[in-house]
Write a structure and sequence with these properties.
Strands 4-3-2-5-6 form a 5-stranded parallel β-sheet. The longest helix is centred in the middle third of the chain and has 13 residues, at about 100-115. It has helices spanning about 25-35, 35-40, 50-60, 70-80, 100-115, 120-130, 150-160, and strands at about 5-10, 15-20, 45, 60-65, 85-90, 120, 140-145. By secondary structure, it is of the alpha/beta class. The protein is built from 7 helices and 7 strands. The protein is globular, with a radius of gyration of 18 Å.
Amino acid sequence: MKYGYRISKSNSIKNIALIAHDNRKQELMDWAQKHKEILEPHTLVGTGTTAKLLEEHTKLSVSGFKSGPLGGDQQVGAAIAEEKIDMMIFFWDPLEAQPHDPDVKALLRIAALYDIPIAANKATADFIVSSRLFNEVYERKIVTKNLTERTGSNKRSEDKSR
């Protein structure tokens, strides 16, 4: 498939979404505490309880969306689509099904479409914050349109509907 792209630049001060499923919240708290000095100059957002716990545990300023299952994942996805999020640290639980799994999949999909870095675990999060690109302006390629030419059968279907 062919896609159209446009370039979007993130600033050196990043907007970072911090999210964790229940079984991974403590791991994210510990990770954020370890990297507090690195995270402090950036704008941090999170879903529901995670944002509240991060603020309490690390004293970082974290703006909160709703809880993930109550629409928070969708709010983060909307912020990504509006280019208000530059990267996402999402410690999701691969061993337990979540009632909002479709929302999680949609969130990961939109993050991929908008070409933002995603960390699903501590190792990836460590690599992201230690990258030389972390504090630099970065150009992302955002998918704008599917440019695949239509096949003859699709074209005939379109012609019939006119």
